[in-house]
Amino acid sequence: MSDRPIIDWPAWTDSPPGRYVLAWEQAQLDRVVSDVFGYHALQLGLPQLDALRENRMPCRGLVLDAASGASAPYTYPPVQAQPQPTPSDRYAPDGRATVWCDFLDLPFEAQSVDLIVMPHTLEFTRDPHRLLREAERVLMPEGQLIILGFNSLSLWGARQSFGKMAGRPFVPAAHDLIAFTRIKDWIKLLGFELERGRFGCYRPPLAHEPWLSRFAFMEQAGDRWWPIFGAAYMVTAVKRVRGMHLVGPIKAKKPVLAPGLTPAATQKTHHPRI
């Protein structure tokens, strides 16, 4: 973990800029995860967001890492005081089912999860490449990975860089912010296919609500004129497996008939697109 100053997640998410960013991220997640189907979905870190609340999978879990600042304010139950964890220890204070583990060694079988959401998780882990490899390992073929992060190529990213040098970071992150283009390169190397990318939060990095409100007009302007410079981004990718590429409807060969025979009526087969 970096020895640089780190803003406390709970305190920041209760600040005007924190509420502003989380509201945008929650809205994006609600829209995207509602269309992802399967059986198992995981959210890694940042319990201030309920990333899976609009998802309809039967098994949804919040995974927290005691070593990650992105899991605050929830803390692992003390082992000495309670050697046998009670059922309540496996739930977050808001009632969500919770798994405590090391993000770099996820306790899930390979190809067992249909959806993984990582809200700012890569900005706190000591090894983001390894975490992405773990996510790729546990995801099913055609499973989806959603990553949220702060955009280093933005006014917020610039203020974060200068603020860290002065010992006053603007956003909570244990390490340097990861550029959107770098995320795309990393997931492509792991065999993921980028499905969509979106930027948001175009207002300047201001700490007070009145000033943030004054620049509300920049949301539509930024989305149209400088979309890649939003303060936050969301990446949605699909795990592709070699040999499982879909090529569309398969044309059936006409059967070779014996002389004097006519083909029976057949029903056209539609091949669903997964």
UniProtKB/TrEMBL annotation:
InterPro entries: Methyltransf_11, SAM-dependent_MTases_sf. Gene3D superfamilies: Vaccinia Virus protein VP39. Pfam families: Methyltransf_11. Residues 99-147 form the Methyltransferase type domain. This is Class I SAM-dependent methyltransferase. GO terms for molecular function: S-adenosylmethionine-dependent methyltransferase activity. GO terms for biological process: methylation. It comes from the Bacteria. Keywords: Methyltransferase, Transferase.
